[in-house]
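@channel sequence for tomorrow's demo:
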Amino acid sequence: MQSKVWFDGSYNWTKRTASGGCVIDHNGIRTTRTWDFGKTTMNGCEFLALIHSIKLARSIGATNLAIMGDSKIVINTVNRRWKPRKPHTKAWVREAQTLLAAVKFDLRWVPRLQNPADEYSRLVAAVNDMDELCLSIFE
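structure tokens (generated this afternoon):
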């Protein structure tokens, strides 16, 4: 049975911080996660979200993955349609491809509105903003 994996990265332009999220449907159970990636690039958070999502899917026993994301650069470079140009991008692509070599997978692009991981990727930034707001109120 194919497990569905949605991933997304979110970049805060003001703070230059990144986060990611994923939603995994595996054996009738939905798993969600968020990650705070700290300082990275806009594309970096997308690649890191994919890498973390694959690791999570494998850790819960998923071996046949339908992976969906809304980043064309991630989908097309990992699927070898586009060549990565920057050294850090090459490293992320290699890591994702290495992880995917151990599973059966279909990696495809979906519009943001069809990506449930979008809201999870933004959650970390929202929580961080709330923490800062609370600190400034009580200082």
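heads up for whoever presents: The helical segments are 42-59, 72-78, 87-100, 117-138.
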